[in-house]
Amino acid sequence: MASVTRAVFGELPSGGGTVEKFQLQSDLLRVHIISWGCTITALEVKDRQGRASDVVLGFAELEGYLQKQPYFGAVIGRVANRIAKGTFKVDGKEYHLAINKEPNSLHGGVRGFDKVLWTPRVLSNGVQFSRVSPDGEEGYPGELKVWVTYTLDGGELVVNYRAQASQATPVNLTNHSYFNLAGQGSPNIYDHEVTIEADTYLPVDETLIPIGEVALVQGTAFDLRKPVELGKHLQDFQLNGFDHNFCLKGSKEKHFCARVHHAASGRVLDVYTTQPGVQFYTGNFLDGTLKGKNGAVYPKHSGFCLETQNWPDAVNQPHFPPVLLRPGEEYDHTTWFKFSVA
Ligand code: BGC
C-alpha cells in the first residue's frame, strides 16, 4: 500500500504557474516528485539498520531546479541523450534542433521536457503527469501527447512513459536521477558495486556520439556483467568515468538492466526496464559548484545515473533500435527501480 499527498513546492517567476510536490510513501520508500519536469526531488530508502537516507541528488527549493543544472531527477524528452549535430531526417525531410551541447543536441534541446510544468493527476498509489508537446517544439516534428506515471509498490518505484504523435517523430524518454546509495551528499560513489546486464556497448567519438559500432564488452572496462567496485575499477582501467550506452539483453518485455550494491549501508538498487539500452553516467561533469540539499555540493563522481532509454543518436543510425513513433502507434515503456537491503 502506498499513500499520496500533495503540497505547493513553489511559484514559477513571472506568473509561470504553481509547482506542486507529490509525496508517495510505502513502508519501504518515500519519494518526492514535483510537477516541474516530473522531477524526483527526494527518495528516502532504509539501510540495513532501518535508517532512512535520501539517495538522490537535488535541491531543497524550486530555485535550485530553475538554475543551470545537470537535469537532477528530471524526465528527459522529446529525445533523451545526443543527436549528432542536432540534425536528422524523417521520411526524407530534414530537421534541425538547437545545438545545446556543442556540436550536438542534448536531452531535448534548450527547453526540454525537464524545463516545463506538467499537469498532475493523483492516483491511489502514485501520480501521473501529462502534457502536450506542440508541433515544432524545439524543432521536433508534430504534436506529441505524453503521460509519465510514477507509482510505488513496496520497495519499487515504477515509471511508465506513454506518448502519441500526430506526425512521425523520434521519441526517447527517460529519468535522469543521480543516485548515491550512501546518501546524497556523500563525496563519491567509489564504494558502490555495479553490475550491468550487457554483452555489448556503444563506443563514442570525442563528442560522445556513438561511432556506429556495437562492441563486445568482453575483455574491456565495459564488462560489468559481474559486480565491480566502481572506484577500483575506474582506477584499474584509468577511466575518467562512464558516460556510455550499454546495449541490454532482452526484448520489449520487462528485463533486468542493472544492480548497484552499497555494502556499507546494505542498500541495493535493481533496475528493470522494457528499453533496449541504458546510459550509465558516473557524474563526470559534476564539479562541486552547485548548492544541494542539506549543504551538499556534489563533486565529480558523487552520483550515478542509470538512464534507461533507446540508444543515443538512433534517429541517425539505421542499425540501432527504431526510435520513430508514427501516428496511430503508442510509445509505451516502463522502468522499475527496486530498492532492498543485502
Ligand atoms: C549525459 C552526459 C551529460 C549528463 C548531464 C547524461 O545523460 O550522457 O554526457 O553530461 O547527462 O547533462
TrEMBL record:
Q: What UniProt keywords apply to this chain's record, in alphabetical order?
A: Carbohydrate metabolism, Cytoplasm, Isomerase, Phosphoprotein
Q: Where in the cell is it found?
A: Cytoplasm
Name the active site residues.
Answer: 176, 307
Q: Do you know which PROSITE patterns this protein is assigned to?
A: ALDOSE_1_EPIMERASE
Q: Name the catalysed reactions.
A: alpha-D-glucose = beta-D-glucose; alpha-D-galactose = beta-D-galactose
Q: Name one Pfam family in it.
A: Aldose_epim
Q: What is its main location?
A: cytoplasm
Could you say which residues bind beta-D-galactose here?
81-82, 176-178, 243
Task: Give the domain of life.
Answer: Eukaryota
Q: Name one GO cellular component term.
A: cytoplasm
PANTHER family cross-referenced by the UniProt entry: ALDOSE-1-EPIMERASE (PTHR10091), GALACTOSE MUTAROTASE (PTHR10091:SF0)
> How does the record describe its quaternary structure?
Monomer.
NCBIfam families linked = PRK11055.1
Q: What is this protein's name?
A: Aldose 1-epimerase
Species of the source: Colobus angolensis palliatus (Peters' Angolan colobus)
